[in-house]
Amino acid sequence: MGVDKFTKLLDDDRSIMAPAFITPVSSGTTTPTTTTASKLTEAGIKHSSHNSNGETGDLAPLDASLMTRALTKSPKAVPEFDGPEAKAQKTMTDHMVTVSWTVEHGWAAPELKPYGPLSIMPSASVLHYATECFEGLKLYRGYDGRLRLFRCSRNCARMCRSASRIALPDFDPKELEKLIIALCAQDGPRWLPKDQAGCFLYIRPTMIGTDSALGVQRPREALLYVILSCFPDMSKSLASPAPPAMQGQANGAAKASPGLRLIASSEDTIRAWPGGFGYAKVGANYGPSLVAQGEAKAKGFDQVLWLFGSDDYVTEAGASNFFVVVREKTSGKLQLITAPLEERMILEGVTRASVLDLARERLSKSEDGAEALEVSEKRFTMKEMIEAHDEGRLLEAFAAGTAFFIAPVSIIHFRGKDIELPMGDDNGVYARRIKQWLSNIMYGKQEHEWGVVVEEKTQ
Question: Which of 169, 138, 160 is nearest to 348 (CA)?
Fold first, then answer.
């Protein structure tokens, strides 16, 4: 089936979209997408509701202004930033936000309540058919003492697109942003005190299908929730050496290195494919990648460099977008290259978009010893990358995402060959600059429209 025909069928089917109800236990600048991708997600941006017959009805929209509050009477102890609790990734803040949805009534009033377990039926749609999507972003404590989010509206819009892809209900992304801000304003002041400038909390908005009907169908009930987590600083882990058992081994074992160590995916392993759902942040994208990730870790590598097709097209690095800085063979010009969005194989990352926006704005001319470069979103292969490396034209490679932030790559292992990128002071010029620019915005060293200030509750 062709992509256009597939898209039309999906759009037609979306007109009868439905998800559902669960009772939790108490305790800037945009990056254009393609026409095809826009059609695929179009219905998820209209913010209308539909009944079971596919007709637009008077269902309640998501409305953050209706949120109720029930604060915990037993606040948790706040752990040290980047300490053992953060590394375990199991410590959440005191509160969460939940909102239920049913096909009959639409969205219920949001609730800000103590963090605690959810109650779902064993036959819930999410447990059987992967009707689940999520987002990942951070709340930053700035050096100016203020709390900030970074381009949160893009995460909310992307979550709406992801929900649309797996038949979960539509919502206005602006209302989700308000819910996120409300939770951050409540828990941020205590969990990110003003004397911890440069620290952050991880934010996880999630939507799951909770319909208890055991059948392959659009869920008629759903739950949207937002939680905050103590999360490790993943960028610091890149300074550690390879595991002792792997140091000095042959057969592609990773060497000690301060940068990200990648191993290319094997020929029989594919993360995403054209026309699939690689562009959506759904749980079904992550579970199937864990075996390959575990194998990479066992060999001393940090992440898998995901390739596609017989030509070994480069797509993503782990769950991050991947960039290279290459000198073009004929013109001699520098190019910042990353995979395109058109085929919907890669995630439309918020950090990715920000890297591209800043590069186009600030790196189009030579300045402060950095040569100007062109930005190119296009397919590129491992063969082309190896050729550029062997000819001295591959200057940098780095991953970009919420967890690892901007992470320079030092080694890429591909079919028995190591591509080593030097990590000295004269290398990684562009990754370092972009990382600093983004960090300045996130932590309030530069006032910028991408940095959304959260007004803290004193309470």
Answer: 160
